Amino acid sequence: MLGDVDPERDRDGSRAPEDLAAAAPDPEPATRLRLGWRFVVPLVTAGAGIMFAMSFQAAQGDDLRADRDLPSLIVEGDSRNEAKAKELDALLQEVEALTTANGPKDTRLEALNGQAERVAATAAATKVEGPVVEVVLDDSDRRLDSLPDRFTPDDIVVHQQDVQAVVNALWASGAEAMMIQDQRVISTSAVRCVGNTLILQGRVYAPPYRIQAIGPVDSMLRGLDADPTIQTYLDYVQAVGLGWQVNTNPSVEFPAYSGSVDLAHATPIR
Fold it and tell me: What's this model's pTM, rounded to 2 decimal places?
């Protein structure tokens, strides 16, 4: 009630000094907390500084989470390889011309050069011209939802074995020289596919894949028709629309192969 007097208070309504002293909080925990933060804050700041420094060192000023356009990187690398190949070809021609003009006349050297010239055509080290059979393989343009039953996305793209089947059939039926896309094929050339791209001698290609062979045209055409692997491919041409074209040309010139012929991973047959 309004007229009641709190025994805990004196007349002016304030607590007695001894009561205030008893109610005051203990200052020691607050002091300990402030002392703790005095050490924690520098540690956190130092740790953050170390993390920022490591991030900068790794990124070198670039965005670590920036989008990586893999197709663009592949195209850029392929362009560099093509430019270097052309540069190498020009340098080899320059070396050959200088050697012929200024090289010392030596009977043994001339004999070795003669042997090299005799095998140059077989090694694809010279230009060659003749009648050509051309085969073009391409992915199907059908949509996945339009595929017949029992067919999968793998059935509408050209695979490594399809390219190899054409290459092997042409060699077996008398091909004397061959090109895939814009590169001359030699005995150590390997046709490899990753996904729906073709890798040949360090260069990456997308379909359509063009294979050209110089040699006896009629024999090579018969070889294509008789190959069982190619016949299987032609079944898929009819079923899902894979690309298949065969053309002939009376005369085409192939450039000389100018890449490396060193074997890096070979094991002698015993």
Answer: 0.59
